[in-house]
Fold:
Amino acid sequence: MIEFYQVTKRYPGGQLGLDDVSLQIPKGELVFLTGPSGAGKTTFLKLIYREEMASEGYILVNGRNVSNLPERKVPYLRRTIGVVFQSFRLIPRKTVFENVSYLPRVLGLDAKQQRKVAYDTLRRVGLAHRMNAFPMQLSGGEQQRVAIARALINRPDILLADEPTGNLDPELSEEILRLFLEINLEGTTVIFATHDRGLIRRVGRRVLTLEDAKLRRDEHLPGEMVPPAPRRRSEPEAPPDASPEMESAGLSEPVDADPIGAGA
Ligand SMILES: Nc1ncnc2c1ncn2[C@@H]1O[C@H](COP(=O)(O)OP(=O)(O)O)[C@@H](O)[C@H]1O
Ligand SMILES: [Mg+2]
Structure:
């Protein structure tokens, strides 16, 4: 559950990022967040994962007030939230597997468990067969799937997506949208920010419209698209025996990006 109570965000310099917004998003819901560029979509998401702090009002995430959360507790909050961005923010010199597997290490799993979690998560987004590729060898849609796997690795309750299809053509956008629908069907709360009204019309659901930092509309739209069928999985059920590639898969190198991939 995500709750906003009269939340205002004023940036240094006085610019309003969000103006007196109140709403609730129940656990397990998929919500679209839309509005023109500069409307406050990114600000809305940043306030939830505490990349920014509210100037007024307060925000509860799973009952916890994140507006006044001490800095040292922010990492705990972020373990429950995955974030996906328009620019995939993958580490170019690491493989697909390494890009997703540096996270479980943070949680103190042993190497074998890490491999299993990373592999299972890549299977979930349909990319296990590409785990030894580098980001630049993948299509934009595949790169975004890797970024989604990375966001899912800690099994977050909440998945935030900031224009995740902004760099993708319409066909790939719909594919990525379907993946978010599947993830939502598995119980994860999803907030999907996009200015692409056409994409939203495909699936319908609850749509929050921001304009000039204000919540202008909060409505339920019917969708055109049939719900996603369970995806065909071609990968084997269990992770393969550790190959040399997997053994070396980023398990001994230092973490060189912020753990939730949510830095500036
Ligand atoms: N770091 C910042 N400093 C000052 N103003 C900002 C900052 N980030 C966003 N803003 C302003 O806040 C408003 C909302 O921005 P943003 O949340 O990025 O909107 P959107 O994601 O919908 O394009 C805009 O007017 C923008 O210029
Ligand atoms: Mg934005």
In short: Strands lie at 2-10, 16-25, 30-34, 56-61, 64-65, 81-85, 158-162, 189-193, 205-211, 214-221. The longest helix spans residues 170-185. DSSP finds eight helices and ten strands in the chain. The CA atoms of residues 87 and 117 lie 24 Å apart.
